[in-house]
Give the backbone structure.
Amino acid sequence: MVLRRNEHDGSALRASPEVVLSNSAAVDLVNLGGSWRRCQERYRFDRGGKPYVTALSAREIGEQREPFNGNLVTIQNELEFVHSTLQAASFCASFSDMAGIILHYQADKSADPYLEIERPGAIWAEGVAGTNGVGTCVVERRPTMVIGRDHFFREYASLSCIAAPVLSAETEMIGVLNVTTANPDVTTETFSLVANIAIRTAERLSNQLFLDRFRQNTILKIGNGDRTILLALDGDQRIVGANRGARDCFGWRGDARPERDLWSIFERDKGVIDGFASADHLKGLRRLDNHLTCDATILHRERKAPGHPAAKPPSPLPKPEKRLSVARPRAEALTIEKCLGPDPKMQAQARLLRRVAGSSLPILLLGETGVGKDTLAKVLHSQGERRDKPFVAFNCAAVPESLIDSELFGYGVGAFTGAKREGNIGRLQQADGGTLFLDEIGDMPLSLQTRLLRVLESGEISPLGSAKLEHINVDVIAATNNDVGKAVAEGRFRQDLYYRLAGVVVELQPLRERPDLVDIAHALLASEADAPPARLGDDAMAALVRHPWPGNVRELKFVLRRARHVCENGVITAQDLFLPSKLPPVSPTRTTDGAPDLDLSLQDAECKVIVKTLAVFGGDVNKAAQALNMSRATLYRKIRLHKLGSQKVIN
Ligand SMILES: Nc1ncnc2c1ncn2[C@@H]1O[C@H](COP(=O)(O)OP(=O)(O)OP(=O)(O)O)[C@@H](O)[C@H]1O
């Protein structure tokens, strides 16, 4: 992809207006001159003045998000994906609507606090915030890069961002995917790469929205990556939807509804028609206009509503041939037991959680980032007695300190300047009768810890500026990946609040220690209904076991997601995972004089890898040795060395 950039004001990229990323399609970035003119002439902004910073309340954000509620998971998945890819360069990622309002956001807690101004509810419309990625992209409807002083207001000169349009299934622009950093050390090269990733992610999100919209139809996919062509077909093989890639390719840009027969574009060849009915991969589709041939994949087939007459069979009738497709295993619902894994210690914890379910005992979930604390909290709610009541999550780290009070406890009529006239219902009241999930509780400021404790102890709440006491009845689940014990010892976390929250404490295992790592991978592959089916090859399973997974299940999810799209014939190999080949870094054990004992640590790591690999291959030494890249004899020697005789071994 080639990015052509029209500079406006002295930014880091001025010296290189054309940033070559690869030799494929060219993307014209917005010329910011037009936006600057609008700022001066239409909005009459003063560069050195203060932008009118404003943000929506939680309820308003909820209302603004409504049109996208059906696509929430898709949007969040893409944001998580782009954020996890770019977080090393301190980028946050957001999705905004066409009013320039940020609706969803992904950022690292440790990211620059300045990025807080990018959180949900923030309004980045160009007429409010001047030239900026989101607002200018909304006006120009093209990818927009705004670096440092390219922002109209000097106030935003420390921010750099790239925004790209997100399209509906009908290829109307419906929002903006934006990535922003306040890191001054990001180089031109990194920026070029980030721009590429952001633009591709916006295209993939648009494609995913297309798949969401046409999930009942047959989907024909041609090509890969950002130029993917997607066609949605009805049972008569009429095209009922086409993504931007398809419209560009076939020259239908102006057609609101590109309805036409598939066979008015491709040659109606018997082999292809037979293949269409019986296989998931079509070879040699020939275009009628230019006679070029291509291969295609059928992502899924039309689903008929009950009572709907069956689709007309394609002619000639399909033969009952053996399907070439990769079988898609059924995704099973998560349970408390599955969330915790089969390790006997964890199963004991699962039994404990089942026993206390419905007892209103507070639960504290601990564990590294991405291990599934949030997921377990939702499962606990959905399997408890309050499942028909609200589950309300509140992330203590994602809300600025100044807003936690009003967001969590709400406020009464006219509580403070700028408050909404009718007041605001806090999360605690929203959760009344149900479950309140306090995520990242370790990040709650001390002053608010006192208030929270009082509310939890008394069951009464008096919203800011209101004299009225309200009774609330909530089950509380809290979670953190911080060391709360240490925070208590250092006086950063109130001990009495810790005891109030820690009725039952469960620590989730890091993924690298879970014996069911490969089962989780299989389950994740089965869970994305609209993605192409894929299964793990033996070498991929071994590679999964060897990797240390610092981002835990979240990282695994994205690695598999990428692999599913790059693999050939639906079989994921170790190469498709793009994992580093080194052995996992291990936390060294200590010798008696306190120095790290690297030898022991490595042995420990080796032992764990062997145990897991044998488990993955059901104890088959041949396969395990192959996967570990060692001879059978060496593996036997190591099994003896590590005293793994009790492991299931098939000779
Ligand atoms: N047992 C599981 N099976 C399948 N997917 C899971 C499982 N546990 C977690 N996930 C997925 O992994 C991702 C991260 O999970 P989750 O958000 O629950 O982790 P977390 O511990 O709360 O992370 P953080 O501390 O960063 O908030 C989510 O996309 C979730 O759907």
The mean pLDDT is 78. The longest strand covers residues 173-181. Residues 86 and 194 are 7 Å apart (CA to CA). The chain is about 35% helix and 15% strand.
